[in-house]
Amino acid sequence: MEILIRNKVIQAIETLYGQGIDENQVQVQTTRKEFNGDKTVVVFPLLRISKKSAEQTAEELGNYLVETIEVIASYNIVKGFLNLVFHNRYWVNLLNKAISDPNYGFKPVTKDSEVVMIEYSSPNTNKPLHLGHIRNNLLGFSISEIMKANGNKVVKTNIVNDRGIHICKSMLAWKKLGNGETPQSSGKKGDHLVGEYYVKFDQLYKKEITALIATGLTEELAKEQAPIINEAREMLRLWEANDPATRELWSMMNTWVYAGFDETYKTLGVDFDKIYYESNTYTVGRDEVLRGVKEGIFEQMDDTSVWANLEGDGLDRKILLRSDGTSVYMTQDIGTAKIRYADFPIDHMIYVVGNEQNYHFQVLSLLLDKLGYKWGKDLYHFSYGMVELPQGRMKSREGTVVDADDLVVGMVEVARKVSEELGKLDNYSDQEKQHIYEMVALGALKYFILKVDPKKTMLFNPEESIDFNGNTGPFIQYTYARIQSVLRKAADAGITIPTEVPAVEISEKEASLIKALTEFPEAVQEAGEKHSPALVANYVYELVKEFNQFYHDVTIMNEPDEEVRKFRLLLAQTIGKTIKNGFSLLGINVPERM
Q1: 92 lies in some domain
Q2: pLDDT band at residue 410, thresholds of 50, 70 and 90?
Q3: Is residue 107 part of a domain?
Q4: How high is the pLDDT of residue 390?
Q5: pLDDT grade, residue 181 (50/70/90)?
Q6: How far is Cα 257 from Cα 188, in angstroms, rounded to an integer?
Q7: In angstroms, what CA-CA distances link 560 with 513, 553, 557?
Q8: Which of 6, 67, 508, 513 is deepest in the core (most CB within 10 A)?
């Protein structure tokens, strides 16, 4: 409709004032809620052509548009803004489209759709997933669903960082202190158990540093010379040399961690189409780096370490291979990128990684380009802000993280407590209650995280997220359940809801609700263009607010006019479907009863 109005304004300018105008000079926008109208034409940029006042120009344009665009019923002028009011039949037609299309707002995936690979999660196998990982996983999964809803073929992928000095630290601590402890013998989740030994390594390391400083060494030298860090480096060297004992220990502990990760992923409702492992990709990256040395792209130093000099590109020097021949993160990312583009016909590659890695991906893109990969500069780093707690940032090695599993358990308990206080589930069985507690808890967690602009650092507050009022997941879930309750009452009363809008006079409140509903496709499209689940989350919230106002102001089941009653039931049913579809893009389930 905006395109049609813009084209008609261009025609009007030529017809009324005898001049052509570029379409970029014609501004058409959605009318602000405090004014009467559906679309607004900004008149001010046109005054230099009309040579008339803003009001007179707007009036002449308004008359022209009413005559030439059938759906425009009337107009009003507020200073230099021409507000256009559409006939109700325009909104009825859009509502019928929403009713008839079960995938309303979603574009179909076709054989010609572009392939978008989205990498998210990217955990290390030396610790369990924590709150920061939760934001990553929820963003990655939601962006994947949004891109799919925009008609793309999506490949959800994960790169597991299963090798390196950090992995050796937890291995070494277990070897020294574990006494054969396993998930089975301890009753601990495998990723939790391994994470405990990562913390224990750091504790041992700090003790050795303190002892060396006491002998007169500087802190920098103490960190470098501490026996345990050198043992970890030697373990990494042995791992890369395929030492059987080291590899066996590594494989055993990683198996524990993978089982733990899978359990957490299942709880969060996220999944992957393809999982890559750094242990399989770093050798490809190392070969690429060595090729770069031969071709003069990279430089090998006297100590055999390999560096990329990016100073000519406005950056600095970046190490790609250490002097002992071991690889760094950048090495494996080069290898992983090469393998992925060989595995899939990728049109767009999106990395969902926190903003502390902005520089890393800037360098990766440049290095791949220098190595001759035409897609190197097309890689997109979806950079998001960190999650902080009221007490500040989390630190894995110090054991101050908020564990993902513990957080979910705590959220379920908060959901139970709040639900019991409100008495919302008094007539439900224990099994039904537990199911709803879990659905509400995860809905609260996901919505609280996804409603925030991804680029912003956010403060997470579990209690604030589980509130049945305000901009929260439970508030939206409760509204959906309320709609389903009304529909069940209609079914029990033998009312058949029509499949298209009956011939009734639509009130202003109903028209306003239909307008909000018809903005869903635009919200999905914009969320895809901007890679922002927050746009979907906040659209659904605004739709729910509009419905609740409608629900408060009008009656549905007690409406005496049968056709109006059926229309309002049909409208509520369609709103419910849209809430459910919108929340599906965020990975959030909605309860049929609550």
Answers
A1: no
A2: confident
A3: no
A4: 66
A5: very high
A6: 11
A7: 21, 15, 8
A8: 513
Q: How far apart are CA 106 and CA 98, in angstroms?
A: 11
What is the per-residue pLDDT for 391?
58
C-alpha closest to that of 448 among 488, 475, 417: 475
Looking at the structure, do residues 366 and 475 belong to the same domain, yes or no? Answer: no
Rounded-to-integer distance, Cα 245 and Cα 255, Å:
16
pLDDT at 309: 95
- Element containing residue 420 per DSSP (H, E): helix 404-422
pLDDT band (50, 70, 90) for residue 399: very low
Instruction: Tell me the sheet residues that pair with 86.
Output: 72
* Residue 550 covered by a domain: yes
Q: What is the mean pLDDT of residues 508-530?
A: 93
Do 296 and 362 have their domain in common?
yes
State whether the Cα torsion 488-492-498-504 is positive or negative.
Answer: negative
Q: Closest Cα partner for 330 from 301, 304, 292, 374?
A: 292
- The reply to whether 332 and 369 lie within a common domain is yes
What CATH number is attached to the domain comprising 242? Answer: 3.40.50.620
580 and 454 housed in the same domain = yes
Total residues found in the chain within this entry: 594
Q: What is the pLDDT of residue 411?
A: 87
Write out the two tokens for 213.
């400083």
The pair of structure tokens assigned to 517 is 């509903």
For the chain, percent of residues with pLDDT exceeding 70:
98
3-class SS letters over 508-536: HHHHHHHHHHHCHHHHHHHHHHHCCHHHH
Cβ atoms of 39 and 29 within 8 Å: the answer is yes
pLDDT at residue 70 in the model: 92
For 340, the domain range is 120-388
Do both 418 and 549 map to the same domain?
A: yes
Same domain? 382 vs 419: no
Query: To the nearest whole percent, how much of the chain has pLDDT over 90?
Result: 79
Question: Are residues 445 and 576 both part of a single domain?
Answer: yes
Helix 131-149 with 533-553: angle, nearest 10 deg: 80
**292-306 residues labelled b (16+ CB within 10 A) or e (exposed):** beeeebbebeeeebb
pLDDT given for residue 398 in this prediction: 46
Q: Are residues 381 and 282 in the same domain?
A: yes
pTM above 0.85? yes
Cross-sheet strand order for the sheet of 299-300: 299-300, 306-309, 317-321
Within 88-215, strands assigned E span 115-119, 153-160
Q: Write down the pLDDT at residue 429.
A: 87
For position 460, what pLDDT does the model report?
81
Total tally of structural domains belonging to the chain: 3
CATH number reported for the structural domain that contains residue 78 in this entry = 3.30.1360.70
| pLDDT tens digits for range 59-107 | 999 999 999 999 999 999 998 899 999 988 888 898 999 999 989 999 9
Angle CA 531–537–542, to nearest 5? 130
